[in-house]
Amino acid sequence: MEQEQYKHVEKLIRSSKNVFIVSPYIDEYYARFLLKHARNKKIYIISSSPEEKAKKMLTKGGFPSLTLLLSVIMFSFYYLLWLAGLSYVPVLIIGFLFFALFIVRLSTMKPKNIRLKVPKEFIHAKFYIGDNEAITGSANLTYRGMHKNIEHLEISSDPDYVKKLKAEFWRMWNV
Question: Residue 100 and residue 142: Cα distance in Å, rounded?
């Protein structure tokens, strides 16, 4: 039976400009979700045991598919020009430059607006804070925790509670 707690957490992540996440476990599914929805916001994450692939994605970024697509389109364009009779040297140089751009982008891509902290001590707390809302409960930021397990979440829009939970987040961040 599919649970629905993910709807509340995903809505909070999509709609907030500043997102604070504490979850001992984060999987690749939610690392991709965070990367997809990270534009124009700041996301701070504390996670004791993120999956290795999720940790790598959140610290190094995702696959730069747009850069690859543009490289392939531009290289194809210049290849067609070469077939039409242009000199092959400029075509090869331009194609190589686009391929080099893709490789540089692949090796240096790091999400600038996502910060992940993996503390030495195990943190078992789970909470998700947005601009005006806080969600606490038992659900980890994993596909299983959000979609499959039977979990309990408390959702609050009380400004004092949201402020208190943000203070708790920063206390944990600075430990």
Answer: 35
